[in-house]
Amino acid sequence: MRYSYGIMDQRKILLYKPQLFLKSRDLLVFPSADFRNWHGDIKEYLDGLFQIDFQEMGKREPVNFTELNLALGVLNNITEELESLFDRENVSLLPYHYLSTLDEKYKKPRSPYTSDMRRVDLQVPVISPELKYKHRMEMVEEANREFTRALQEKKMKKKDP
Amino acid sequence: MRVSEGVPRGRVAEVYHPELFQENEEVIIFTREEFNRTYTSIQRQLDYIVKVDLHLDRSEEWKLMGYWPKIMRSVHRIDRDMDLIFKKEPLQSYLDAYLYEHIQSSQDQVPVAERELIPTMEASHFHPLY
């Protein structure tokens, strides 16, 4: 995203990189320290979510609802942070700044294709033309058997009376 | 947080609410459109997770196994969007699809059985019965 720092000077902003905003008409201006803090807060929550995910992966057990509720609580905090960005009453006073130092290995995304799905897929037989032929012949044989049985019953009925 | 809109005028920018900022305070400036896209993209991912949660039946815990990767995918996208704020890479939220997702496509992992289902020319001409 295009962004530039600037400094307030006589009720106007001196842009450090004015060439970025030549074609744009609307700008959004935040105090840089506060914005960095806000960014760090959300990153902290996200790191928490990655830790929940990694813990679950380490246990080799499916997630349970306790972990889901924990994750949803963290997500609610993120929603609140997002809302507080445009709330002028909300002032972050604490000189607290989180810098994300979470290792990339914890953030490793996983495919939704799990080992269980793979196991199911492996049990699906390969449908080759020979197999198709075999299945059709099975159907023909079954129909043949039914047909002969019906024919025999007819003959029996004719003989009986 | 203190926030104001503004318009660029050459080397300087005029803000609508200069009284919110102190003299000589360092500020960070975004274009409104790009920031809007990133912000709504994050909100959309959050909404998606909340919807997944709402539709989840609490009595069926085994279903969570399938939904958890979906939730984590949204979390990864939020993380990506947050990183993109301070990067020069093109914005992902302009696109319908995420280009920079590092999740492997499931095509390589699908065993042979899945792939053989796609009918080939030879197979369609093979009619042993007729």
What would you say this structure looks like, in words?
The complex is a heterodimer of chains A (161) and B (130). Chain A is mainly alpha-helical and 161 residues long. Chain A folds into 2 domains: 6-124, no CATH class; 125-161. Helix content of chain A is 54%, strand content 10%. Chain A has 4 helices and 3 strands, in the order βββαααα. Chain A has a two-stranded antiparallel ribbon. In chain A, helix 1 (32-59) runs antiparallel to helix 2. The relative contact order of chain A is 0.07. The model of chain A has no long low-confidence stretch (mean pLDDT 86). Chain B is built from 4 helices and 3 strands, in the order βββαααα. Chain B has a two-stranded antiparallel sheet with strand order 1-2. In chain B, a hairpin with a 2-residue loop joins strand 1 (4-9) and strand 2 (12-15). Chain B is elongated and about 60 Å long. The model of chain B is unreliable at 112-130 (pLDDT under 50). The interface between A and B is large, with 80 and 81 residues.
Overall, the morphology of chain A is elongated
Class from helix and strand fractions of chain A: mainly alpha
Rg calculated over all Cα atoms of chain A? 34 Å
How many beta-strand segments of chain B?
3
Strand order of the largest sheet of chain A: 1-2
Helix fraction of chain A, binned, reads 40-55%
* Beta-strand content estimate of chain B: 5-15%
Unreliable stretches of chain A (pLDDT < 50, length at least 5) are none
List how many beta strands of chain A DSSP finds: 3
Q: Strand-and-helix sequence of chain A, N→C? A: EEEHHHH
Uncertain stretches of chain B: 112-130
Mean pLDDT of chain A: 86
Count of helical segments of chain A? 4
Major sheet of chain A: size, sense and barrel closure?
Answer: 2 strands, antiparallel
